[in-house]
């Protein structure tokens, strides 16, 4: 099977999952923690080289305060859990904003845990317009080109994006790295994650005609 090198994960549906269980919306975020670690371990076993998780966006911070507190805490807890794994971990987002959790400041430069065998990028207080607003270094002759002018320059091109929750939109997810990504949608909510979701996405990806425009 042809595997993607880099998978993007959009773990949507936490609030709708909570409502379906008769809970208030903010109760759904914590339920996404175990699925996140389970997916990491599956990717590790399969041989995926890089994973990017969508934590929360700058636009998400417009939500009610009780939800902001809940999804911020869930992101902090998720990063701390991943720091106990064999991973090279980077938290990426607007860390100058008060909406960025102070507990994650130390992760805004990539850190290796264990052997650092899988690159993990975790988007926290991320905004596509923020990412593209980095001052340009016009004197540079680096082969990175445009990528060097992104805050997300250390994140590679994404081969496959998987979104849970049934919605068919990217929601500003790394617009440069996702320009040639294949996009797979899982109708189940993220807290209802099953290994089969990942396996089916990989089987689907294996059948795609990957041309990168050529």
Can you give a write-up of this model?
This protein is of the alpha/beta class. It has one domain (6-206): Decaprenyl diphosphate synthase-like (Undecaprenyl pyrophosphate synthetase), CATH 3.40.1180.10. The protein is built from 5 helices and 7 strands, in the order E-H-H-E-H-E-E-E-H-E-E-H. Strands 4-3-5-2-1-6-7 form a 7-stranded mixed sheet. It is globular. The protein starts with 5 loop residues before the first strand and ends in an 8-residue tail after the last helix. The relative contact order is 0.21. The model has no long low-confidence stretch (mean pLDDT 94).
How far do the termini sit from each other? 22 Å
Strands of the biggest beta sheet: in what spatial order? 4-3-5-2-1-6-7
CATH class: Alpha Beta
Number of helices: 5
The count of domains is 1
The helix/strand series, from N terminus to C terminus, equals EHHEHEEEHEEH
Gross geometry: globular
Strand content: 15-25%
Main sheet summary: 7 strands, mixed
Assign the CATH topology. Answer: Undecaprenyl pyrophosphate synthetase
pLDDT under 50 segments (min length 5)? none
The second-level CATH architecture is 3-Layer(aba) Sandwich
The CATH homologous superfamily: Decaprenyl diphosphate synthase-like
Label the structural class: alpha/beta
Radius of gyration: 17 Å
Mean pLDDT: 94
Question: TL;DR?
Answer:
This protein is an alpha/beta fold and 214 residues long. It contains 5 helices and 7 strands. It is globular, with a radius of gyration of 17 Å.
What characteristics describe this protein?
19% strand; 7 strands; Undecaprenyl pyrophosphate synthetase; 214 residues
């Amino acid at each position: 099977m042809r595997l993607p090198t880099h998978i993007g994960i959009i773990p949507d549906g936490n609030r709708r999952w909570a409502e379906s269980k008769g809970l208030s919306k903010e109760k759904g975020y914590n339920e996404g923690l175990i699925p996140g670690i389970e997916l990491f371990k599956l990717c590790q076993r399969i041989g995926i080289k890089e994973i990017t998780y969508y934590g929360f966006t700058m636009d998400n911070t417009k939500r009610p305060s009780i939800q902001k507190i809940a999804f911020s805490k869930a992101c902090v807890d998720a990063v701390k859990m991943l720091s106990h794994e064999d991973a090279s971990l980077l938290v990426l987002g607007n860390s100058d904003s008060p909406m960025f959790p102070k507990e994650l400041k130390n992760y805004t430069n990539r850190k290796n845990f264990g052997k650092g065998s899988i690159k993990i990028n975790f988007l926290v207080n991320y905004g596509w317009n923020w990412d593209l607003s980095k001052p340009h270094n016009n004197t540079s002759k680096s082969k990175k080109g445009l990528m060097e002018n992104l805050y997300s320059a250390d994140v590679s091109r994404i081969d496959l994006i998987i979104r849970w929750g049934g919605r068919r939109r990217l929601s500003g997810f790394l617009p440069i790295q996702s320009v040639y990504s294949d996009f797979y949608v899982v109708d189940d909510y993220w807290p209802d994650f099953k290994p089969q979701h990942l396996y089916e996405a990989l089987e689907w990806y294996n059948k795609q005609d990957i041309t990168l425009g050529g």
